[in-house]
Design goal:
nine-stranded mixed β-sheet; 5 helices; 235 residues; two-stranded antiparallel ribbon; alpha/beta
Amino acid sequence: MTTRVGVITFPGSLDDRDAQRAIRVAGGEPVALWHGSHDLDGVDALVLPGGFSYGDYLRAGAIAALAPIMTEVKDAAAKGMPILGICNGFQMLVEAHLLPGGLIRNAHQQFIRRDQRLRVENNDTAWTSEFTSGQEIVIPLKNADGGYVASESELDRLEGEGLVAFRYVGVNPNGSLRDIAGITNDRGNVVGLMPHPEHAVEEGFGPDTAAAMRSGVDGLPFFTSAIAAVVGAAA
């Protein structure tokens, strides 16, 4: 069985092809989906990629959250399908109320691009099972509206229920409250984060490591985890 992972392209998506490549490298079959469609083409999992959907008018991800295909995305999430939102995709998930909180302009009001160190806080999700809890990884980050915010009570709930999936380590690049870089829903099938795992799946194209320049592949377990989750559910 080959796991089919849909990648939804919105007007202004930038990293949809990169996400497709990451899925292919992980051993899955990428399936291109279109924001204006109501057809998920029978996929087993979904990725909402990074970019500037609809020019990020109103708020980042706000218009994309109302796109026709998001009706099917919400239905799929409710049925337990693994769904990953990366950067702009994370913004869409919170705007669509599939994940709590919101993303606002970076604290320093500037676009930031860097290789970012993260700590895996929850490895019990469809997208993190091949990490270990507490593991530190490095994947690229690039955003202008990456500051994660929520009410104090919501932040306490996320912390108390183990729903913080990733936390910034070393430096908080955008002012996210409690250094939160990514979160999961209660069920663990929907995950959103601001950094870009799809840019760290092939040696020669990822972050620098102590072993060699551009040799970092810490993003690959995101995609192999999801494929394992689909295969495990079907067994």
